[in-house]
């Protein structure tokens, strides 16, 4: 029952409802009857050394309370809005309590009491003693881990992850035998139970995943939490950008749970704080230092010295826009693929608006004989915009959105975008000193050159498959690339670079 309760929990994390998963475990609804004092009075005088009542009133009760507390802690993270209810996860509780009134310390105390009883009781068979102990310690560690994640105590992650991994290895090494057909354990889970709960959506019974898959999912969750703990020690947002991009295009099994994606987004930015320690200005500092190898303060100094415009400096607007775009870009790596594609499409106009603002600002700056710090910013903004266009196009392949007739143009347009993208890289690399960022830009330029060659080749191969009429192609084009024709562009004098028009 304890192992199958883990199956219910992981199935909920995978996107099923609580009613279909955790709430199908009938002991969740019988908790008031499992109180040790209550159950001791109702079974006074009864004795079964093979199956002592404490296995239910102490061990099973502690496990169920720990399960519900883990779900409660995960629910609190998920409800923040980083992931979307009914799209990434299911929030409906059906008026079933999930240990919300129990503080974490109380749940941990109950689990500790159960562990002590298992170690000290002579009525627990030796074959079960160690197996039960490992499962209770695993549950206790998960409660601590999810609590630490919610409170952002990232320094606590590593020892907790190591303990959970050790316990998980022990649990996997000692699977319980399948229950006999007459065992009451089989009746502890009722897939039809959701029909008696108050639910806003129609539900159908589901098949819980097999136990091996459940442990794999839990191991993936632990790996993701460990990665988060490592990343929170790295202040460079470019590292988060690389890790997030790899997550999108080379996803690892069991590391895309909505709970984990929400936790990463909370770590990146929440309540005006970046990486749980920096003010919002940190995003702008990273933007300038990682792309231009200059500090934001140097940019401000050059800006103020050279400004000859009639109005006040638009520094505040530039800083806010860069912060919004950089933070939003990195957080979007932990969206689901469809939501990320929509975000990228919407952000394209914001990148163009920033580029247009910098172009206008350039007209009101006094000439400079040395390095034009402000002028170097525009190619960087264009670079990010081209990267976003590239992601929009490629995500169409990832999500299988393109029909056979749409693919040739997608390959051709991708090649054109990459050509402009490489031109931006040339401008940026030319003024960078010999440093790690310069070598990274050179590597990325080689990568984009190869991707461009591949795009041209695929265009040449697929162009022969186009068979629709020109009118049908035109309509498909306008529908698929509507993000390039939003009416807001008409309000800006400078046309978008590399437009499809």
TrEMBL record:
<comment type="similarity">
    <text>Belongs to the MAK10 family.</text>
</comment>
<dbReference type="InterPro" id="IPR057982">
    <property type="entry name" value="TPR_NAA35"/>
</dbReference>
<keyword id="KW-0963">Cytoplasm</keyword>
<protein>
    <submittedName>
        <fullName>Uncharacterized protein</fullName>
    </submittedName>
</protein>
<feature type="domain" description="NAA35-like TPR repeats">
    <location>
        <begin position="318"/>
        <end position="425"/>
    </location>
</feature>
<feature type="domain" description="NAA35-like N-terminal">
    <location>
        <begin position="1"/>
        <end position="107"/>
    </location>
</feature>
<dbReference type="Pfam" id="PF04112">
    <property type="entry name" value="Mak10"/>
</dbReference>
<dbReference type="GO" id="GO:0031417">
    <property type="term" value="C:NatC complex"/>
</dbReference>
<dbReference type="InterPro" id="IPR007244">
    <property type="entry name" value="Naa35_N"/>
</dbReference>
<dbReference type="InterPro" id="IPR057983">
    <property type="entry name" value="NAA35-like_N"/>
</dbReference>
<dbReference type="Pfam" id="PF25789">
    <property type="entry name" value="TPR_NAA35"/>
</dbReference>
């Amino acid at each position: 029952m304890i192992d199958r309760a883990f199956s219910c929990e992981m199935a909920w994390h995978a996107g099923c409802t609580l009613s279909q998963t955790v709430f199908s475990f009938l002991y969740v609804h019988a908790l008031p009857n499992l109180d040790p004092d209550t159950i001791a009075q109702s079974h006074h005088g009864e004795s079964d050394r093979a199956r002592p009542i404490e296995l239910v009133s102490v061990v099973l009760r502690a496990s169920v309370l720990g399960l519900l507390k883990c779900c409660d802690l995960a629910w609190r993270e998920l409800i923040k809005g980083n992931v979307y209810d009914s799209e990434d996860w299911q929030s409906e509780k059906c008026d079933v309590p999930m240990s919300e009134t129990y503080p974490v310390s109380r749940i941990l105390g109950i689990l500790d009491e159960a562990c002590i009883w298992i170690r000290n009781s002579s009525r627990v068979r030796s074959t079960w003693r160690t197996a039960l102990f490992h499962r209770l310690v695993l549950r206790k560690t998960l409660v601590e881990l999810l609590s630490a994640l919610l409170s952002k105590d990232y320094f606590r992650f590593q020892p907790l992850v190591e303990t959970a991994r050790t316990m998980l290895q022990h649990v996997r090494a000692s699977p319980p035998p399948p229950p006999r057909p007459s065992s009451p354990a089989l009746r502890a889970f009722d897939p039809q139970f959701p029909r008696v709960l108050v639910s806003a959506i129609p539900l159908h019974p589901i098949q819980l995943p097999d136990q091996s898959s459940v442990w794999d999912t839990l191991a993936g969750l632990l790996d993701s939490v460990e990665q988060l703990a490592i990343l929170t020690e790295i202040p460079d947002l470019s590292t988060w950008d690389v890790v997030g991009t790899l997550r999108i295009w080379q996803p690892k099994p069991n590391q895309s749970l909505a709970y984990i994606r929400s936790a990463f987004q909370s770590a990146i930015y929440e309540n005006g704080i970046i990486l749980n320690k920096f003010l919002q200005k940190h995003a702008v500092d990273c933007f300038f230092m990682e792309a231009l190898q200059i500090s934001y303060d140097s940019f401000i100094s050059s800006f103020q010295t050279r400004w000859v415009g009639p109005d006040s400096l638009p520094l505040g607007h530039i800083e806010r826009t860069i912060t919004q775009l950089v933070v939003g870009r990195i957080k979007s790596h932990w969206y689901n693929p469809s939501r990320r594609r929509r975000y990228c499409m919407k952000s394209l106009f914001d990148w163009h608006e920033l580029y247009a603002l910098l172009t206008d600002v350039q007209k009101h700056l006094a000439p400079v004989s040395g390095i034009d710090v402000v002028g170097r910013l525009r190619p960087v903004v264009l670079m990010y915009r081209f990267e976003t266009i590239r992601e929009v196009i490629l995500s169409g392949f990832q999500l299988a959105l393109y029909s056979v007739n749409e693919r040739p143009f997608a390959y051709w347009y991708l090649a054109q975008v990459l050509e402009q993208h490489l031109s931006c890289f040339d401008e940026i690399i030319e003024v960078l000193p010999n440093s790690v960022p310069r070598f990274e830009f050179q590597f990325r330029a080689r990568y984009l050159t190869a991707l461009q060659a591949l795009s041209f080749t695929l265009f040449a191969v697929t162009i022969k498959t186009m068979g629709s009429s020109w009118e049908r192609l035109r309509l498909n084009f306008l529908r698929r690339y509507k993000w390039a024709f939003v009416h807001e562009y008409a309000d800006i004098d400078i046309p978008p670079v590399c437009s499809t028009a």
